[in-house]
Amino acid sequence: MKKLSFIIFLLIITLTFCSCQSGEATKSEQPPTTKTTTEVQNKDNKLASIVGTWVSNDIDNDLYFIFEENGDAFVKYGSCTIYGEYFDTEDDNGNPVYDIDLGEFLYNEYSAKMDGEKLVLKSPTNEYKFRKAEFYDVVLPQSDSSKIDEKLLGNWGSQDNFECYEFRADGTATVTDMYNMATIECVYECDNGTVVLTYLATETQTGTKKYEYSVDGNKAVIDKYNYEKVE
Length: 231
Description:
- By secondary structure, the chain is mostly beta strands.
- It has one helix at residues 2-18; strands at 52-56, 60-67, 72-77, 80-90, 96-102, 106-115, 118-122, 127-132, 154-157, 163-167, 172-177, 182-191, 194-200, 206-216, 219-222, 225-230.
- The longest helix is centred in the N-terminal third of the chain and has 17 residues, at 2-18.
- The radius of gyration is 20 Å and the shape is elongated.
């Protein structure tokens, strides 16, 4: 339940700022045969390489899908990142497909066809058209580093909450989950026992999270959850 809460939080950000449509709900139960991203070919079909950065009108223009050669995959929007993976395999009919796991966005087996700078991913239930893109440089708002609390600096983990925090002396922070499935890069300011984190939900739109906190040595309470400093 804790694991889902952080992903749901990220999805709420996306729904709020990006009007994201829901992605795949099911995934076929086909075991992987390889862990490479090289092109796969059979008698009648060729699987196009999906390495690169893409956006899709069918999902949301503010979401950037990034596939790397080593099989890593990401969804990026603003200063938020969801981590996943993909690999090539075959469907039940022996056709080459990519098995993509990117949370609620892409979670299925997909055939891939390329037409110039355009890509079509097709699963048994959906078809998505993508176009080549370039992810922008993320520029967070300026933070007033005079409004930090030195007692809060460092890495904080919790057995009670799925979210983990790293607060830095330059006024930046990273919110992540204990399994490193998603991160949010932020700036933060502290004021009288309250910390306000500001992040980018798109290239230009910001969002904020506001928590009450207290620190006692290597222990802290953030948003009513108990935390300990992680070395």
